[in-house]
Amino acid sequence: MTENIDVLIVGGGPAGLSTWLHLHQKAPVLAARSIVIEKATYPRQKLCGGGVTRRADLTLGRLRIKIDVPAIPVHTVEVRFGSDTYYLRQRNIFRVVRRHEFDHALALSAIKRGLRLSENEHFCDFERVTDGVLVQTSRRVLKVRALVAADGAKSVVRAKMRLSDKTRMSRLLEVVTPIDVRGSERVTKNVAVLDFTSVAENLQGYVWDFPCIEAGVPCVNRGVFDSRVYPNNERADLKSIFSQALQQRQVDRPPQSWQGHPERWFSEKGIYSQANILLAGDAAGVEPAFGEGIAQALGYGDVAATTLMNAFHHQDFSFDDYRARLLAHPLGQSLKFQTRLAKKLYREGPDALAHAKKLLARWLSPV
Ligand SMILES: Cc1cc2nc3c(=O)[nH]c(=O)nc-3n(C[C@H](O)[C@H](O)[C@H](O)COP(=O)(O)OP(=O)(O)OC[C@H]3O[C@@H](n4cnc5c(N)ncnc54)[C@H](O)[C@@H]3O)c2cc1C
Q: Which of 48, 59, 100, 249 has its CA 20 to 30 A from that of 69?
């Protein structure tokens, strides 16, 4: 039997949950006729540095949600360009969480407000029918008026949409290590490191060290981000850069223990919807300067919910207005700013970096 659903949100990460939470705030009747399917079960693992900026907390605040999970507040960001180092010092520049805990807490907040969340159910395919799309999941067939693809950077929904725009993917590697005693002082001082030195080796990004708490144990989340905001430039040897960075930090972690996952980056010219389908979060694109995506995924939820509400009001599911709404929203403004920043930062290597310090400070300072 085919079930009829008004809105199907695929993916229970920050983008999917935020879409439902904003819908609940703006149009509770529509939210009650909407569901989220999530292929995993919570608490599910998500590879991530876990840096949650104030932008994310501001969005959650507007939803009257406080995610109270173990976190390390960062009061100093040490920014390195080779031998040149400078410090941004402010209370709570961002906090570092573990994503399985953060996302689980967010899902519980939504369930408390009435979200119908189906875990362990994944989206398989869709076909277009009169008045909507017919979605095949791992469990059932759903007839939906609006489908929200919030299923991450490797979005299956997006792949099935067969969009014509070019792929824009960043590359990331990550490993979490217990605190090295030699580095413990820095960690207890709540310092995060962003090291841009390898821009000289074609890296269009940086190496990070974020203090965090893993199962009650103080750890450091370390990784390397390569935005590929200039996709035609020579590719940096990510493994070699990360290996060198770990050696410099006297961390002995073999490559088999590293994990990798891509991010999609936002482009002003990107395609973000089709009739009856909206893209949100990593499935749409996040920012390429620092690879920050949690605050952006939460922001997409706001725009997606307004667009859905408007579509049901006017019974127009073309979603032609979604891109314009995204670009006009503070999320779109900041994605545009950060894309320009990424292009400046990673254009000419160290010289460009020196000029970009001011921009960095602006981005990392409070909103
Ligand atoms: C190594 C790394 C480090 C990062 N560090 C940071 C950081 O420090 N700070 C920051 O802000 N951002 C960081 N990011 C980016 C951030 O993790 C993402 O931008 C963010 O998770 C995007 O949220 P989302 O909800 O769009 O996607 P996701 O969080 O990926 O959620 C998508 C959800 O969809 C589910 N799903 C997938 N396929 C299906 C399917 N077929 N059917 C049903 N469900 C499905 C998945 O299980 C998942 O729960 C990092 C990313 C990486 C890879």
A: 249
